[in-house]
Batch of 2 targets.
Target 1
Amino acid sequence: MTASIDHKLRRVLADVLGLKPGQSDAFTKDTGLFGHLPELDSMAVAGLLTELEDRFDIVIDEDEVDGELLETYGALLAFVKAKREAA
Amino acid sequence: MTPHTYPCPLSAGGSVDEYALGFDRGRKERLLVIPALFDEANRMRRFTVEVMRRLDGAGIDCFLPDLPGCNESPQDLALLEPEDWATAMHAAARHFGASKVLAIRGGGLILPPAISGWHYAPVKGANLLKTMLRARVLAAREAGVTESIDGLAAEGLELGLDLAGYPLSGEMLRQLQGLAPAPRAGITVIAHELVGGSPLWLRAEPDEDPIQADALAAVIAMGALA
């Protein structure tokens, strides 16, 4: 399950960022996300969160969304994993 | 591809001309294309027109009407509700003599009655709304203002709300929240998986994908000309 969460999360990010297949495979835990990607405005982040809810069957509260959550790939992965475990 | 107009009925009576993009060579197959809604409409616009270009090449006339209150429409979006959009799409279908319909994403929530066709990548109105509410809360937070989704939603039902740059009435919000794509005889759902690639409505920036346009146009052309 953990491996598939990782795989699915890479896929969602590839979809939102319009990456080529395989390009998100190179993400590591420290790969920077939103602070490093100026094209991700609030609408794109909102779309990402709704898509995460849909694909992982979780509910994300706005209070849980802060700069840290979206700082690195590793932080976002840990968040989604924790959400799935609690679900 | 040429600009056309269609007479859009007004709730107070009478009608006003709204624009539609069209490929009209007087052919037998005539497709009404209902666009995606709100911010998704912008991100899907080029894809939508690219699909129409391919269908034109395949011998199918296509028409993409403006929704009242959007694009070049003379109507005030803040006074409209989804039912007005459905009425407009019905009028456009009749005006252009549409034989089939293709609805994109939220466009499937405002289908005209009694016409067969396709709905690509359906979405619930509630999901569109939640994403826009969320974007507004996130943007406000960046500006140092605290808003909540529930608070905004409640306020919006009373007073209307600006979301993703669209002034939406309380009635628009209320109806959207309850609209969901329902299975309908004659309307074939085309899941995004059939088209393949990464969904264009999710992209942070508007983008295009000729392979996806080829795929969707092929599904429609095979069905329409069968």
Target 2
Amino acid sequence: MLFFSYFKELVGKEVTVELKNDLAITGILHSVDQYLNIKLENTRVVDETKYPHMLSVKNCFIRGSVVRYVQLPPDGVDVEILHDATRREARGS
Amino acid sequence: MVAAAGLVAVERRDEGGCPQLDEAAGERIELVQPNVGIVLGDHTSSYDGDYSGTLYITTRQLIWLSDRDLHRGYAVDFLSLAMHAISRDTGAYPLPCIYTQIERGDNDEYEIGEDEDEESEESEITNSGDLSKVSEMRLVPADSNALESIFQVLCACAALNPDPEGEQEGEGEWFFNADEVLAGGLTNINILSQQETAEGLVQDSRFEDAEEELEDG
């Protein structure tokens, strides 16, 4: 639930989503749901030479279970708050 | 069908020519789009302008049935649909379409749920070649104005099909705790209890597979 709450805060910011099949897509986070399904807009593929056919995609829906990493914008991360939230989550409170 | 089966052939349909649904499990059609072409794999140059199919989006899967060949059709369950997107740049592909990525059937993560009750489905895969290896699919509606509504219905239906909780094991289970279940309300409890049942089955078959593989090796 921590990730869900946290990603919701990032809506409207640019993130890079790396899929388990190595495809990495950068775009504006449009929405995220409780299963961490992610909708991106204004997308671009990080490695365009490897996935040229993906150039035509400008918005996409990514199934939460195929996401390996979400790279966050540095200015979208308040490290202190994230630390606190992570500790609270780990304690289960 | 708990497992993510990848792309499968659909060779049967009901008397009205519509896909056979698992109505007992609550499956229902959310969108029917006529005159939709289909392109499997990355054969973007071989597109033959075949619009002669109908796309059905149900609460559990996406089905395309040919209008010309009553035994030709394909289906992808939402557990296998890794990504979908609207593609409009005709420089990358000649026609505006819905672009999808499918989790391959040979992915270890998705093999664990295959059970022996689905023999008919397995034989269909074999008959139609390497469908389980298809990882990309394009759906090309003759009416490109339909792209947005197809995309939105796919989003809504994908959200109805979360993975069985067991697949998160080892990487995400720590945030599916009891407190979260309680905080999530009754709806989530119902969903989770169904998933726990499914998880039990998945784990059983996975262990069987593991033992067989060890013995074979």
